[in-house]
């Protein structure tokens, strides 16, 4: 049960990283905006080639000021080496190896993960000979490719699969197959590493190995209440590695990749400060990824009467869209209420795994529709014929109807589904299929 291997794509701005990433993802959509400061939450993509899954981490689309370029790209490479299972350095063949490329190559030569070199913008044979010059970067064979036209991209992907570690992907596995996977996330300084250390207690209670399982070294196995949980992607937290300033971008990469490889997210919010937009962004990532959710209000030891009142108002205003998530007020400092975390995780996961039998679902739906039929549209009354829960993790429902259902009514159905069946701690999805 290892996480999907991740390939990080690094290189100077404008060498064609995003174009290449889109090509490798098999998409023809426009290159991601190159506007400085634009936040892109989804920078880790799921890729599939020859039946093998891997993650592509796109480090494009971020333009540092030209002065600090060399240092920036080197830092980018270092972060990539730390977070990814393999790194692809992209160099622009039409320009050749610049001083910056060389500096980055120097960093990457020290990597203890495999590194591959590719030369982009090789749109035709003319440039292929120029790529030979790139051998001197000391990273082996430069793979020529044109992200724009696709030339060479299949060969590149074949070569990438050879250097990526073989990690049998097991999409969450069967329930009961190994410890549940938890992402401990939240904006910087909310207390993630403090909490992890508190929960893990002495280093010896962090189980690094469990009989019969191989443990991904970036994860921590932590025993809570006699139950082992796998806290994913905690290498950075454990070592208390702090992101340099300006590294929020990578903090967000890490967050999104941790959430993707987890089943349930523990989102930490600093209760002593006003709820920030960044807190909401993390919550949105969890909901959009369809993972179960538990919210921890940390630093509760610093919360006084006045702050508690403010917080109540902020909850109404800012966290209304995740009111179904359980909230626990904790303190990583004092250990307050940390024993409530494991039961909350289990409740959220149970909802996430819930399947409502079709018979019961339709009985409930018939009663609901009889009492409150969908609004008439264009003189017609849409009929809801049938509902089924197509998936769990998270629970996903499909309504088969004879006509268009307004968003308001869909939300109404969703609300009533929760009232009837619970689903505390998990997002649910309702989609509509119109049968003519
Ligand atoms: P990034 O900043 O490294 O992500 O680079 P982009 O993917 O945004 O590409 C920068 C510019 O190079 C854009 O104008 C692309 O259209 C162009 N470009 C990218 N790949 C190729 C390629 O294979 N051939 C050619 N001719 N141009 C390319
Ligand atoms: P991270 O960036 O989310 O990993 O946050 P840290 O664990 O490094 O914590 C940031 C700061 O908040 C540190 O100075 C911690 O000592 C402090 N801190 C963390 N949890 C608590 C808490 O529950 N109460 C108080 N008073 N301070 C805390």
From TrEMBL:
Lineage: superkingdom: Bacteria
SMART domains hit by this protein: AAA
Listed PROSITE patterns: G_ENGA (PS51712)
SUPFAM superfamilies for the chain: P-loop containing nucleoside triphosphate hydrolases (SSF52540)
Protein residues bound to GTP 2: 186-193, 233-237, 298-301
Pfam family, one: KH_dom-like
Binding-site residues for GTP 1, renumbered to this chain: 11-18, 58-62
Record keywords: GTP-binding, Nucleotide-binding, Repeat, Ribosome biogenesis
Occurrences of domain EngA-type G (ranges): 5-168, 180-353
Family: Belongs to the TRAFAC class TrmE-Era-EngA-EngB-Septin-like GTPase superfamily. EngA (Der) GTPase family.
NCBIfam families recorded: GTPase_EngA (TIGR03594), PRK03003.1 (NF002828), small_GTP (TIGR00231)
Oligomer and partners: Associates with the 50S ribosomal subunit.
Physiological role: GTPase that plays an essential role in the late steps of ribosome biogenesis.
Stated name of the protein: GTPase Der
Organism of this sequence: Pseudonocardia alni subsp. carboxydivorans
Gene: der
